[in-house]
Amino acid sequence: MFLKLDDVEFSLGQWRLQVSLCLEQGQCLALIGPSGAGKSTLLSLIAGFETPSRGSIRINGDTVNQLDPASRPVTMMFQENNLFNHLSLYDNIALGCHPGLKLNSSDKDRIHIAMTATELTAIATRLPADVSGGERQRAALARCLVQHRPLLLLDEPFASLDPRLRHQMHALVDSLRKANELTVIVVTHLPTEISPLAGTTAFMHDGRLLEYGPTAELLAKPQHAELTRYLKFTQAHYTPDF
Amino acid sequence: MDQALASRGRTVNVRSAQTGVWALLPGALSLAVLLTLMGGALAAIFSVAPPIRPMAILQDPYIGKVVRWQAILSATLSVGLALPVARALARRDQFPGRTLLVTFLGLPVVMPVIVAVLGLVAVYGKSGLINTWVAYLGGEITLPLYGLTGILMAHVFFNLPLAVRLLLPAWQTIPEESWKLASSLGLSSRLLLRLIEWPAVSPFLPGVCLIVFLLCFTSFAVVLTLGGGPASTTIEVAIYQSLRYDFDPAQAAMLALIQFVLCTSIALILIKWIPVLANSSGRRIDARHRPDLKNPIGRTVDITLILTTACFLFIPVLAVFTQGIRGPITSVISNPDLWWAVLRSLLIALGATATACGLALGLALSARFLRFSLRMHRVSEILILMGSLSLAIPAMIIGTGLFIVLLQAGALDRGTLLVICAVNALMILPYLIRSIAPTLMRSAQQYDQLCAQLGLRGWPRFRVVDWPAIRRPIGFSLGLGGALSFGDMGVAALFDTQGDTTLPVLLFHQMGAYRFDEASVTAVILMLLSVSLFWLIDRSIGR
């Protein structure tokens, strides 16, 4: 098992998150649920931005509870602020190789490969403010690639993009996942849109994983009333082909 | 839940934060320096001063006179005149040169006080411009520049522009829709003032009045040069006279203590209004839809007010320049005393800015760590507040305390420059910390998780993420601080017993000896060097 969350608990005041979860290497999981369900908190726990009060988080067999975010084999993309606004796209990506931007030739090769894969070579010297939203997110994705970390967490990073760009980004993530054997967890409010990328979906509600299973099955036959209600209010008309 | 997390700001793993407990060290060191300097100064004052009774202070006719006449009159005049000028500037937001004028309203804030005083003498003095013009026309005017009139003029010169700049944001809080509504209702200018402008401006007034009052109440160089007797003195000047002329440290300490109690009380009252003044809407003033914009009387009044203010502010500065350029330049610049004074002032300015920069960075970085990594919001705020403590304790109080410390240690002849440097650093610190702390906090809010994920911490994080964000505000504030320290005459005058004369004190000596032609040249050199210093620091750090 590549990622194993064993009875992980986290509390904030009266609110409590309690989750157990297993993922195989190369698997892509879509995390859905209403706002406040604890999806982003779960990603923060895996990434190391929050510390669980109980339970263990194991990645590739190692317990990572005690590790800080930079030491975990995890990389995360946020909804916004994925890039430093004062640095060029190239430097932003290069930070994934060395935090002091001291790059050797192998680092430069890695950056070049990542930039080619995300089609950013032509705009490498531009600042984030001078490129489109999609290009910014591609740069963040390129940095995730140069970091060479096997677990990619996506906390709605494409939510602000238009449907066409979102589709392109999902396709890009999927191809990169396959090429680099990445395990991906993606938080989304558009489960049908993400279904071609994510073979498995988990539904979270009030800090708990209520349903977990193959995406198509879970969306077609929800077992819990909460999921039925959630899906009723979620757009379910867009099924792109990758 | 996610909202709950968001509302407390992005946080990083506490465990990882604990490993970075070294991040508290800079703040602890800065705090130690601050407390040693300010605490040491206050302790020295307490140890020497006779016991004081608060009620006796309030009932003291001397204090009453100082507060009642000089400071209250100065503050009332400055704010009272600033109100119509600010309204005129807000109403005429399109006239050519408005931005430049508003920028130049900041000039008196950075201008060395002693230079401005010389400028006022050059215009309103016995042999000044006005008297020369009037005499040319065959008349004569005698303006009693030395005394309360001169002090009031000088205080209005410094504080009217400041009050205008502090009041202008009040008009930014008025939404464009209010003007459109007023237009559709056909409201007159008087009704606009009553129904729209006054409700927006009045919350700003108490804060502006208190700030200006505090500045006039603690005024030193103006009162020292234009004072003309005890009727219009300030406690700061009384402290100076106790130490310099009577050499009575106990009397000086008692006055410093009174000043401390009064200033702290005013500062405590002021805290309530600071958020109002700092709370800018960020909107641009948009007066296009004001119904009274085309009123010819209003337009004439506004233009007259703006032009009069511009003349009142710029003519003294121009007068200093023209007199300086026509003065005995060769003899002044060939005097080695001038260059020694320049060197001392330069050392003070650079030392003060470097010290203040170190203290501010230490406090701000540790405060950020406390807030975002240890989630200790209150402690973080207190740490930032400690950096602004010197706003409530005027330079003269700290200077007096340190003077007593040096006197008791028998080191008055050795530590002078160091003490002037330290006091100036404390005076710059509040402006510096207010300019960099919010930027560092914003940077943490935006990038903490990203930095944690990329392993960016310590020096690499400072170099790659923090420094690019703060270099502009820090460059500007340090430039400003450098210029202010270079032109500061307060504490430097207090320590002017050991021959360590600074450039502003040299200018004061020249004015005191009625060598106004030399003083004008020195003033121009002082002004040019202040501006160059500001430009150099701002350019080298901020760009």
Short description:
The complex is a heterodimer of chains A (242) and B (543). Chain A is of the alpha/beta class and 242 residues long.
Task: Write up what this structure looks like.
The complex is a heterodimer of chains A (242) and B (543). Helices cover 32% and strands 24% of the residues of chain A. Chain A has 242 residues and is of the alpha/beta class. In chain A, strand 1 (3-12) and strand 2 form a beta hairpin. In chain A, helix 3 (105-117) crosses helix 4. Chain A starts with a strand and ends in a 10-residue tail after the last helix. In chain B, helix 5 packs across helix 10 (148-172). Chain B starts with a helix and ends with a helix. The model of chain B is unreliable at 1-12 and 14-18 (pLDDT under 50). At the A-B interface, helix 1 and strand 6 of A face helix 1, helix 2, helix 23 and helix 24 of B.
SSE diagram, text form:
The complex is a heterodimer of chains A (242) and B (543).
Chain A: E1 3-12, E2 15-23, E3 28-32, H1 39-47, E4 54-59, E5 62-63, E6 74-77, H2 89-94, H3 105-117, H4 133-146, E7 151-155, H5 163-180, E8 183-187, H6 191-194, E9 200-205, E10 208-214, H7 215-220, H8 225-232
Parallel strand pairs in A: 3-8, 3-9, 6-7, 7-8
Antiparallel strand pairs in A: 1-2, 1-4, 4-5, 9-10
Helix pairs in contact in A: 3-4, 4-5
Chain B: H1 2-7, H2 14-19, H3 24-48, H4 54-59, H5 61-91, H6 98-104, H7 107-110, H8 113-124, H9 129-136, H10 148-172, H11 176-185, H12 189-201, H13 205-217, H14 221-226, H15 235-244, H16 249-271, H17 274-278, H18 296-326, H19 329-333, H20 336-373, H21 377-387, H22 395-409, H23 416-454, H24 458-487, H25 490-494, H26 503-512, H27 516-542
